[in-house]
Amino acid sequence: MTIYLVSGKSLVPVHRAAIPNAPQAVADVLSQGLILQEYGRTPSLYDPVHDLDAVRATFDDGVLTFSYADYSPAARLTLAVITCSAEAQPGVRQVRIVRNGVALKPKKCSSYRDLMAK
User: Which residues of 13-25 are buried (b: 16+ CB within 10 A; e: fewer)?
Assistant: First the structure.
């Protein structure tokens, strides 16, 4: 499974083992934070989803709904990590993000192109 983490102020793709044919597992993978192999990496990595509450995802007919609770203003970098990580999963045609019970305006990973590591 490919997910995106943060290095500095950029998104970087990272590969993780995951359950095949279960795109909703992206929520569990992101909420666990960094794994042992990612600590001490230069440049350092950060997973902003690890700091969120009530993280879960469902997958139905190509739509991955990623929901979470967060009581600080929504950070663009966090939304980019969620969107790009979810979109990277096989079979996902659309990503829907629900923050504190409210659906956010859908965006594509391509709208975060400026955040991708060069």
Answer: ebebebeeeebbb
